[in-house]
DNA sequence: AAATAAGGATGTTATGAAGCATATAATAGA
DNA sequence: TCTATTATATGCTTCATAACATCCTTATTT
């Protein structure tokens, strides 16, 4: 049965929850729905690769996508994660450049592909859409600038603590304060910009300092205020 | 005579060279010119500060502006420099946040202030303007992402070489390959994300390796291909 | 022009973090 | 279920770079 090709559910094709599309007219929204294509993607799938030409952007309706750049000898630098309600691939599309990042599914995902033509149609016909889009990019730019400052000025220890707190803010926790997103130590290292061993060591330290608890890849927060102090925030 | 208040010249109030405004109608351009305010700023002047509320964005018609964030114990992180033809302060304005950077004049400048109202008017009435604006932000976002990868993965030596090459691409050279922009070693350090002493040492090394020549703050490029190799590009 | 401050150069030392080696544990594929 | 592969853990070593101290030089200010 596992080989049966599943179709996206209603929830997974529904874009009405996206802030970005809130100000569309009924006609525009209909058109968007008509022209979009939704698909399911298994963990590990590459959505697009660095250097490829994009034909549209994607709306994430389920799962988690890792966006990263490939640096020196193949080392990944994770730029961000995209989850439900967020869009990916729009940057390269808008600036009409080849993709400068790779997008990989890390939690089984559902994505809706919106063709470039549709994007352009919306930009041309609805200033509120453009305005919203501008705000999304501007916010991401601020985050990038903040990150540059952190990475340039903070220690690995501080950055790791900060990354953990960021994950806590942006991803689901279960009722026991355990992060539901599952990342390898290497992925954490690729966010922080350090070596895998350093992350392993520091996580153990955080654990013995009773800031977090570790069970495999699951991270449970025990003392957020103390972790915030470690992050130097 | 030095206390005489100079008015901006015609060239310094002329926005017709800006790509961003190329697609405005005559009426829109007239309105822009009517609502803008141009002024001259001496080196050292702060245009806006982190945390302040902005009332508009600025078009740089002369000089160089340093955009930076203040990190741990006041250490500056330089985000970028803006020169003639570029705009500043638009990011915070568009996302309706308080300024997250400070802008300081490092070469006597002329700026035209464009009120938020005018920006909104243009966004609402001219989709090509919005589209152009989107492209500007998207391009800056790519640069920020590239920079994150560099700073996270490259050595200080590589980053310094790269920064020098970036300056070479983006700022004027005289006929002897000497950079006209004048930066202190500390400012270079604040771009690269390192200590001032490290920049001093590495610049001397580059000099003895015959990659550059130094005379005070003036940097002359002797061997760009070799410098590119050092930058690991 | 003298005074004061700011920037630059260099040696020395300290240390955070990377790199390597190796062992164990966990996960996924056949 | 067994095996192969990948991830995690930990010790040890090395190295790049930060931090500190001091001296020298170049700008700014009065």
Walk me through the structure.
- Two copies of one chain form a homodimer.
- By secondary structure, chain A is an alpha+beta fold.
- The first copy, chain A, has two domains: 11-151, Sandwich (Jelly Rolls), CATH 2.60.120; 154-231, Winged helix-like DNA-binding domain superfamily/Winged helix DNA-binding domain (Arc Repressor Mutant, subunit A).
- Helix content of chain A is 43%, strand content 24%.
- The first copy, chain A, is built from nine helices and eight strands.
- The first copy, chain A, has helices spanning 10-13, 26-35, 90-94, 116-125, 127-153, 156-170, 185-192, 196-208, 224-231; strands spanning 37-41, 46-48, 56-70, 76-83, 87-88, 102-115, 212-215, 218-221.
- In chain A, strands 1, 2, 3, 4, 5 and 6 form a six-stranded antiparallel beta sheet that branches.
- In chain A, helix 6 packs across helix 7 (185-192), helix 6 crosses helix 9 (224-231) and helix 7 (185-192) crosses helix 8.
- The first copy, chain A, starts with 9 loop residues before the first helix and ends with a helix.
- At the A-B interface, helix 3, helix 4 and helix 5 of A face helix 3, helix 4 and helix 5 of B.
- The structure holds a DNA duplex (30 and 30 nucleotides).
């Amino acid at each position: 049965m596992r080989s049966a090709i599943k179709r996206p559910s209603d929830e997974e094709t529904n874009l009405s929850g996206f802030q970005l599309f809130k100000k569309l007219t009924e006609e525009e929204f209909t058109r968007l729905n008509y022209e979009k294509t939704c698909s399911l993607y298994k963990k590990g799938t590459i959505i697009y690769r660095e250097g490829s030409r994009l034909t549209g952007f994607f709306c994430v309706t389920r799962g988690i996508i890792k966006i990263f750049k490939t640096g020196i000898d193949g080392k990944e630098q994770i730029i961000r994660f995209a989850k439900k309600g967020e869009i990916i691939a729009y940057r390269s599309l808008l600036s009409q450049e080849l993709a400068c990042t790779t997008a990989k599914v890390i939690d089984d995902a559902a994505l809706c592909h919106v063709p470039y033509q549709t994007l352009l149609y919306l930009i041309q016909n609805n200033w509120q859409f453009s305005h919203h889009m501008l705000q999304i990019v501007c916010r991401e730019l601020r985050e990038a600038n903040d990150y540059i400052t952190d990475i340039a000025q903070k220690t690995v220890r501080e950055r790791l603590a900060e990354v953990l707190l960021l994950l806590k803010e942006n991803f689901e926790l279960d009722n026991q304060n355990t992060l539901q997103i599952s990342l390898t130590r290497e992925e954490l290292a690729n966010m922080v910009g350090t070596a895998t061993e350093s992350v392993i060591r520091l996580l153990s330290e955080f654990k013995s300092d009773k800031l977090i608890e570790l069970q495999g890849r699951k991270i449970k927060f025990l003392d957020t205020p103390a972790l915030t102090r470690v992050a130097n925030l």
